[in-house]
Amino acid sequence: MIAKLLATDFLKIKRKGLWFLTVLGPFGVVLLQWFNYELVPGRREWLLQRSDDDWLFYLHNVNSFTPPALVLGITILTSLSVSIENETNAWKQLVALPVSKMGVFLAKFTVLAFLLAVASVLLFFFTLLLGIYLDLGSAIPYVEIAKFSFYPYFASFPLLALHLWVATISNNQGIPISLGVVGFLFATYSFKLPDWLPWKWPSLQNQWDEPLVNVALGICVGIVLYIAGMLDFARRDVK
């Protein structure tokens, strides 16, 4: 039945623009770096002179836009996904099926996590292709590109779980949208945030200078928030 719920959810989002947004997010992040390097004549040469490692400097530039894009993407995707059920009054139909409400919540989370994973894969390839186009060097750091593409994804699990939780229990989608706006501002200025705030974790910055700390925190706290949201959703009456 979980497989059927997943198939149904994927079918529902087919014509709702969620796939388009999944592609637009990573493309927009990398496009901003194309503007950064190419829009002003001579700027690429000036940027390349600022670091001994052109690839790493470029990846840090890309990563500076990834956390806000992730938070914005999570906000929009969760809100649109849940609004489909709200607009069609489908919640009662879903829970009337021979599957628990925990299964319904799991299906929603899985679909959204999959969309964000696809966005991370696209970010990897878009980042790689632009780096090759900019001629940053023949020694392509595939592992570092993968880290900057996928680490923020895993570090953002608490935000995904939190937004899905808030979106599923809110009759007014303005509440999760407002939370997303605040989160976007937090992610934009994440370098000023304390290490314990989840909105800082996708930036991969911490006092230990170890990105894996953020990844571990993201996965662990994300699981806790997912379980809390799932249990809360299961005990509530759907409308």
UniProtKB/TrEMBL annotation:
Pfam families: ABC2_membrane_4 (PF12730)
Regions that span the bilayer: 18-37, 65-84, 105-130, 150-167, 174-191, 211-234
Alphabetic keyword roster: Membrane, Transmembrane, Transmembrane helix
Protein name per the record: Permease
UniProt source species: Parageobacillus galactosidasius
High-level lineage: Bacteria, Bacillati, Bacillota, Bacilli, Bacillales
